[in-house]
Amino acid sequence: MAELVRLPASAHAELLELLGPEGLVTDAQVVASHLVDWTGRFRGTGPAVLRPRDTAEVAGVVAVCRRHGVAVVPQGGNTGLVGGSVPHEGEVVLSLRRLAAIEPVAERSRQITVGAGAVLAVVQAATRRHALDVPVDLGARDSATVGGMVATNAGGLQVLRHGSMRRHLKGIEAVLGDGSTISHLGGLDKDNTGYDLAGLLCGSEGTLGVITAVRLGLVSRPSHRVTALVAFASAAGAVDAVATWRRSLPDLEAAELFTGDGVGLVCRTGGARDPFERRHPWYVLVDVAGPHDPSDDLAAAVSSIDDVLDVAVATDEPRRAALWALREEHTPAINTLGAPHKLDVTLPLDALAAFLVDVPRTVAEAAPAATTWLFGHVGDGNVHVNVVGVAPDDERVDEAVLRHVADLGGSISAEHGIGVAKRRWLHLNRSEAELHAFRAIRSALDPDHILNPAVLV
Amino acid sequence: MAELVRLPASAHAELLELLGPEGLVTDAQVVASHLVDWTGRFRGTGPAVLRPRDTAEVAGVVAVCRRHGVAVVPQGGNTGLVGGSVPHEGEVVLSLRRLAAIEPVAERSRQITVGAGAVLAVVQAATRRHALDVPVDLGARDSATVGGMVATNAGGLQVLRHGSMRRHLKGIEAVLGDGSTISHLGGLDKDNTGYDLAGLLCGSEGTLGVITAVRLGLVSRPSHRVTALVAFASAAGAVDAVATWRRSLPDLEAAELFTGDGVGLVCRTGGARDPFERRHPWYVLVDVAGPHDPSDDLAAAVSSIDDVLDVAVATDEPRRAALWALREEHTPAINTLGAPHKLDVTLPLDALAAFLVDVPRTVAEAAPAATTWLFGHVGDGNVHVNVVGVAPDDERVDEAVLRHVADLGGSISAEHGIGVAKRRWLHLNRSEAELHAFRAIRSALDPDHILNPAVLV
After folding, report:
1. What is the rounded CA–CA span in Å between residue A275 and residue B81?
2. B181 shares contact with chain A (CB less than 8 Å)
3. CB-based contacts of B360: which residues, under 8 Å, 6+ apart?
4. Whether residue B198 has pLDDT greater than 50
5. What is the mean pLDDT of residues A278-305?
6. Out of B154, B189, B325, B453, which residue is the most buried by the measure of CB atoms under 10 Å away?
7. Angle at B287 between CA B285 and CA B293, to 5 degrees
8. Chain B residues within 8 A of A220 when measuring between CB atoms
């Protein structure tokens, strides 16, 4: 429906002069591809895609749009899951994809400066040549941009060890909603000179400023890595084991939970093969990685747990990949059943096991025909509740699950953010005083409310 | 001169009713002890010390003070070094010391909730019973409060490994300047539900809200620890060695730099003994700590560096303490020479060695009679430039050193904050756009500007 929305002629002329024809895209077909998220759930309307080349052009775009009252949706790789990077009410899309410069790795400080539009996998390739790595990795690595990962405080597969994007953010450049450009990319490990603007922009989902470049801390790429798939009879056994391993295995890098039903599904769709002779109720996939061979430590840690039903260990890359496929193929396998409602939540660790057992019942009560698929980052308490068999706009399941989470003291968004998808439930986690503080901060940095107006608060 | 400043009678009456006589201290002698920082450099005036018992009383204090236009300086252990916790222009002191509750350690999530007034050493004792530790440690541990450490994003001795306070802040409770109370202490490792208010309050130096309680992540207390004192001929050799060790020693926990002159001073004042037969120009003290004995890794790492002149290793606690005394006795030893100007700065690692060599010249040009003492957290690029022999209010040395730092791309405050001491130089690190954003955020959360008005911007 791109053709139904138009830019004011004067704004169009100014943007064309600023960005040139390559930077102002109004071709309906191209624009349409930017109006929908990759899951197909969130589809909006918008008159144009703006493709600035550099920070100065981004600042120019924000200035023009402020002057004409045109709202803006910043967009990176558009791999988000909460509808935060597509327009909803006729906003223009501001694509950061052309700001993809990657500076040389700073060896001594172990940092790198990259443009917001740099794709994660490309940055990973650049850093790995120096035996260093971006500390955050996620399945969408071939599309997700670093700017988008910062804007959403992305988590992913190694949060257990390294934390989310905010922890590694050593500097930021952004055009704030008030039109000003801030640039603080010096990359100092310690710098207590005022408020943490970088940390505030991180996770703000494009509502405070348009991130144009970031300085990231890197981590050493471990020379040894072992993967193990461990089977359990109960969710409680799995959760308790991971809590124990977090203490006994300092080099524990990932601990991913999934179910026997999930393994059955990914094996049926051909995405992976079950290494065990029989199916078990619960699985935990662990990665342990460090400067020494962690095999002995891992074996001792696994054998210290009475509840373990079975274990498969992989030390070489092909067999590690085969085990990881059991986890990573969950998303495509579930998609073959229909477009899922993806509910990304955190539970307090003390409530996690009971939630894993109870949540399918919560879903069934709200939608008897739906099926529930559970997987997630069990060491962080982070569960991805995937529900299939519910209409895209039927939010009864979402409501029931998120209330269940909040009642247990959990978070309704672990790592995906609020976007538009969870905006109506934000009050489950945040008090009126907090929401008021959010609005006050937003008005302070984006006084005309032109940045991602449909998102967050 | 506390007796020269008075609270408005109506405010006094309301505060007395709210806090009772124990919570509203106007005795001139007691008040006076809260009006000066521990170095004696910053001394202000103020009519009273308020000592609320809980968060509700803090909220009441902020409400009364807003109504009467009385400005407030939050104060924890008053161990800061930039004059940020003493009043300057007649503000009341809001002491958080009575909010010292310490909740039980949450074993599974490895977290703890403590009141803002809890003293670091007391929290350390509580967590160490569970083989867990607060990830930030500093020399002022017997006085510094956790609330103050969060308000200033304290760093200290283990930042190299664990980062500063902000990284470990899993939740916060605070009374904002607008009078509202926010409380988000659930302690979830992943929680992307809106702006990072906790991270924003962390390092805001009491200007946005009064922190009343925090939820902290803890780390495993390593079972093995080795300390080594390593001597170098040049600053460049020391800096390069630490950069190498940061990569080759994943369990490197601290890397502290000091000079031969500094060792001479601490040995003369009786604070420590030199383990070597001859004095060397530069020293690095390293701690390596982990789940396995790191002695072999450390020996290999040290012997891989050609520039090492001498090395002393300590594996037991008394000998480790003897080596650490060489570093920790710097502060008292320097104080015997007079009240130093303490300039806490970060240099980019590539500029650090040259700065260490050049900065005494910068000081000498500004104040020929002054002496310069250098020590710091070399792995982070953090140097404490101590200058003795300059009058407390003579800021020419401060100006010269901070300009030198900024010219090299460094930070004028690594871990102490801005306070009042560095406010006039904040522009060296922060652009007008950033300062404008700081002011906008401050006005958003403290619209009447009653919180620590003399501090930061």
Report:
1. 60
2. yes
3. B372, B374
4. yes
5. 95
6. B154
7. 140
8. 247, 250
Residue A285 to residue A312: CA distance in whole angstroms: 9
CA B189 – CA A379 distance, rounded (Å): 9
User: Chain A contact for B111, CB < 8 A?
Assistant: no
A140-155 pLDDT tens trace: 999 999 999 999 999 9
Q: Cβ separation of B194 and A381 shorter than 8 Å? A: no
pLDDT for B3:
45
Rounded Cα distance between A58 and A450, Å, is 14
Q: Give yes or no for residue A321 having a pLDDT over 90.
A: yes
Judged by DSSP in three states, B226 sits in strand
What pLDDT sits at residue A4?
52
Token pair listed for B131: 């083989």
Q: Is A163 helix (H, G, I), strand (E, B) or coil?
A: coil
Average pLDDT value for residue range A9-29:
97
Residue-wise pLDDT tens digits, A68-97: 999 999 999 999 999 999 999 899 999 999
Distance CA(A303)–CA(B363), nearest Å, equals 61
**Hey, is the C-beta of A133 within 8 angstroms of any chain B C-beta?**
no
d(CA B169, CA B135): 11
Q: Does A441 touch chain B (CB under 8 A)?
A: yes
Closest residue to A411, CB basis, from B181, B190, B431: B190
Chosen for mutation from B172, B190, B412, B445 (greatest number of chain A CBs closer than 10 Å) is B190
Whether A1 shows a pLDDT value over 50: the answer reads: no
User: Which uninterrupted H or E stretch holds A217?
Assistant: strand A209-217
C-beta atoms of B200 and A200 within 8 A: yes
Q: Tell me the backbone φ, ψ of residue B155, rounded to 5 degrees.
A: -110, -90
Judged by CB atoms closer than 8 Å, whether chains meet at B429 and A193 is answered as yes
Contacts with A189 from chain B: Cβ below 8 Å:
159, 346, 380-382
Q: A192–B434: do the CB atoms touch at under 8 Å?
A: no
Q: Does B185 touch chain A (CB under 8 A)?
A: no
Cα separation, B96 vs B213, whole angstroms: 10
Please compute, for residue A101, the number of CA atoms within 13 A of its CA located in the half-sphere on the CB side. 11
The rounded distance, in Å, linking the Cα atoms of A28 and A15 is 17
β-pairing, A72-75 vs A92-95, is parallel
Quote the CA–CA distance of B311 and B230 in Å, as a whole number.
4
Answer yes or no: do A199 and B199 touch at CB < 8 A: yes
For chain B, what's the residue count? 457
Q: By three-state DSSP, how is residue B22 classified?
A: helix
H helix and E strand count, chain A: 16, 17
Residues counted in chain A: 457
Type of residue at B11 = A
| Cβ-based contacts of B202 with chain A (< 8 Å) | 196
Q: Chain A contacts of B243, Cβ < 8 Å? A: 108
Q: How confident is the model over B238-286, as pLDDT tens digits? A: 999 999 999 889 899 999 999 999 999 999 999 899 999 999 999 999 9
Among the partner residues A176, A348, A416, nearest to B192 by beta-carbon distance:
A416
Task: Name the residue among B182, B202, B440 with its Cβ closest to that of A431.
Answer: B182
**What percent of chain B shows pLDDT beyond 90?**
93
Structure tokens at B122: 């007391």
Evaluate whether B239 touches B140 at the Cβ level (below 8 Å).
no
Interface contact B250, partner A, CB < 8 A: yes
Spacing of C-alpha B79 from chain mean position: 8
CB-CB contact of B307 with B237 (8 Å): yes
Does B198 reach chain A within 8 Å, measured CB to CB?
no
Residues on chain A touching B151 (C-beta within 8 angstroms): none
ipTM for the assembly: 0.96
For B85-97, write each residue's pLDDT tens digit. Answer: 999 989 999 999 9
H or E segment to which residue A363 belongs: helix A349-366
